Amino acid sequence: MKSIGRFIGYSMWIISGLLMFLFWFMAMSKWMGFIGGMLAFAIAPGFIIFPIIFWIVEGVFPVLYFSLLGSGFLGMIIVGACSDNEY
Whole-prediction pTM value? Predict the structure, then answer.
């Protein structure tokens, strides 16, 4: 049962991380073109406080970004709960 929980947790964690990167890449490409797409690979989104900048530039609160972030955290909690390590 723990292996199923770890699989589900890791899947949530990895998929939400990839989708957040895709969201970051698309926003940077839209804002800055080709250069923004290249910068998306070089700069971490948290480094420049991406959600706040997105909110200011687009005028829309990034609900999808925060729901993906929450899904990733939930996946980490599931993996931690299903872990074999006892501390």
Answer: 0.80
Give me the half-sphere count of Cα atoms (radius 13 Å) on the Cβ side of residue 37: 5
Q: Which residue has the higher pLDDT, 69 or 50?
A: 69
Q: Nearest Cα to 25, choosing from 84, 83, 65?
A: 65
Choose between 45 and 51: higher pLDDT.
Answer: 51
Locus of tokens 């829309």: 60
Contacts of 44 (CB under 8 A, 6+ apart): none
Is the separation of the CB atoms in 77 and 16 below 8 Å? no
Cβ atoms 21, 35 nearer than 8 A: no
| DSSP per residue, 2-68 | HHHHHHHHHHHHHHHHHHHHHHHHHHHHHHHTHHHHHHHHHS-GGGGTHHHHHHHHHSS--HHHHHH
